[in-house]
Design brief:
Blueprint: H1 2-16, H2 19-35, H3 37-42, E1 51-57, H4 65-72, E2 78-82, H5 90-103, E3 108-112, H6 116-119, E4 123-126, H7 132-154, H8 159-165, E5 174-176, E6 182-184, H9 187-221, H10 224-229, H11 234-266, E7 268-270, E8 273-275, H12 282-309, H13 317-332, H14 334-339, H15 344-351, H16 356-366, H17 371-399, H18 409-417
Parallel strand pairs: 1-2, 1-3
Antiparallel strand pairs: 3-4, 5-6, 7-8
């Protein structure tokens, strides 16, 4: 046992004292904010920028109707540039509209046909696909309002009734717990906090799993493994490396968590959103720790066994992708989890041990599944870790001193059957 502790101490101290650990601890949250916080803050930017839109109106609508609708929707920086239909007809006016878009005098254009009130159809012209948000977020709501107003007018509906029926909708979100209690929440903030935790599990399991793979291959190449094996068994060496590297990962996360907790006491404000530790329920926190630990030890054990069979980092690439798919597939299924977190497909994949650390935790954050499913995923992962440790122990014992030929799937299969 003392020898295992010595290996754990060596692996742990070697990493926490390294410059890369310090840099990763400092820059990790900053890099994560670039991928998570920055898109949240910039999601609505650009909609209020000044822009000019050319308009060919053949519908006979009141000249100011579209402009009034834009201002009522809060688009005060949008300027409409009418394009007159002259003696050459509508086709010539459309060509003029296209010319203005091409030379940059207008950002985009719209043709409102004569039968607009009857059909509700219009044509949007733009120079690039990036202008589609102008169509969907600026013009579409305003034209829809004008269309409703004109149809109400043709039906002789009083203006007061139109105003009443066109009133906007404001949402209040209340989260209902399993006990039936409800509390108000900011959906964007809650989803953002959950997404941060999901990404931490994804990144940390992947990063420190690969650290285990790299560490084993490096010691094998430098013949340090031969020195260590003179005083410790292959199984204990593997166990010590996995636990030591895992403790380094927990230390790094602990520093991030402490910094987040201290900042949350004063309130972290991002735009109009305030993030606090109160967003993280006990179920989410416990699930995070469990899935992080189980996920790391599962992947690190597998990576350690594969690393022992490889002589170079390049040799491990053929084995790396299948393991990474266990983390990549859950990220690809995120939209499905958001729509139907309890669907059969999502439930089955979330119980697969390689996918469970990310996918089941994702379900916990979106809509906590029945606890028996969460506990079952923990049990399946624990059994998988035990099986992986037995298999990796064989690979470690056989491969750590094996040099020369690059391993294949057949080689690993033969080693496991021995």
């Amino acid at each position: 046992m003392n020898k295992v502790l010595t290996v754990i101490s060596r692996e742990y101290l070697e990493r926490v004292r390294s410059r890369s650990f310090v840099i990763g601890t400092v820059l990790g949250p900053l890099l994560m904010s670039m991928f998570i916080v920055v898109p949240m803050l910039t999601a609505g930017r650009g909609l209020d920028d000044p822009r000019t839109i050319a308009v060919i109106d053949r519908s006979g609508l009141p000249a100011a109707a579209l402009g009034d609708a834009l201002r009522e929707n809060g688009r005060k920086n949008v300027t409409l540039a009418p394009v007159t239909v002259g003696p050459n007809g509508e086709a010539a006016a459309v060509e003029e509209l296209k010319r203005r878009i091409t030379d940059g005098s207008v950002s985009s254009g719209v043709l409102v046909p004569a039968d607009f009130v009857a059909t509700g159809k219009a044509t949007f012209y733009s120079k690039s696909v990036s202008a589609l948000f102008v169509r969907d977020d600026i013009l579409k709501p305003a034209l829809a309002r004008v269309l409703r107003q004109e149809r109400f007018a043709h039906a002789q509906v009083p203006d007061s009734l139109f105003t009443y029926l066109s009133a906007g909708l404001e949402w209040d979100s209340v989260s209902v717990s399993a006990a039936g209690k409800g509390h108000r929440q900011n959906d964007a903030v809650s989803f953002g906090a959950a997404f941060v935790l999901i990404m931490i599990i994804y990144m940390m399991v992947l990063m420190y799993g690969n650290h285990t793979l790299t560490a084993v291959i490096e010691e094998k190449n430098t013949r340090m493994a031969e020195v260590l094996l003179s005083s410790v068994s292959p199984e204990n060496l593997m166990l010590g490396k996995v636990i030591g590297i895992g403790m380094a990962g927990l230390t790094q996360f602990g520093m991030w968590a402490l910094a987040f907790f201290l900042l949350s006491q004063r309130g972290i404000t991002l735009g109009d959103m305030t993030i606090s530790a109160g967003l993280l329920t006990p179920v989410i926190l416990v699930s995070f720790v469990m899935f992080f630990l189980l996920g790391f030890f599962l992947y690190a054990t597998l990576y350690a066994g594969i690393g022992a069979m490889c002589n170079q980092i390049q040799d491990a690439q053929q084995f790396n992708l299948p393991l990474m798919m266990g983390l990549i597939i859950p990220m690809m299924m995120m939209s499905a989890v958001m729509r139907e977190p309890n669907s059969l497909l999502v439930t089955v994949f979330s119980l697969v041990p390689l996918c469970a650390p990310v996918l089941m935790f994702m379900r916990v954050c979106v809509e906590t599944p029945p606890m028996w499913q969460v506990v079952l995923s923990w049990a399946l992962m624990a059994v998988s870790i035990w099986l992986a440790a037995r298999g990796a122990g064989k690979l470690f014992r056989i491969g750590i001193l094996m040099y020369g030929q690059s391993p294949t799937w057949a080689t690993i299969g033969k080693a496991l059957r021995s």
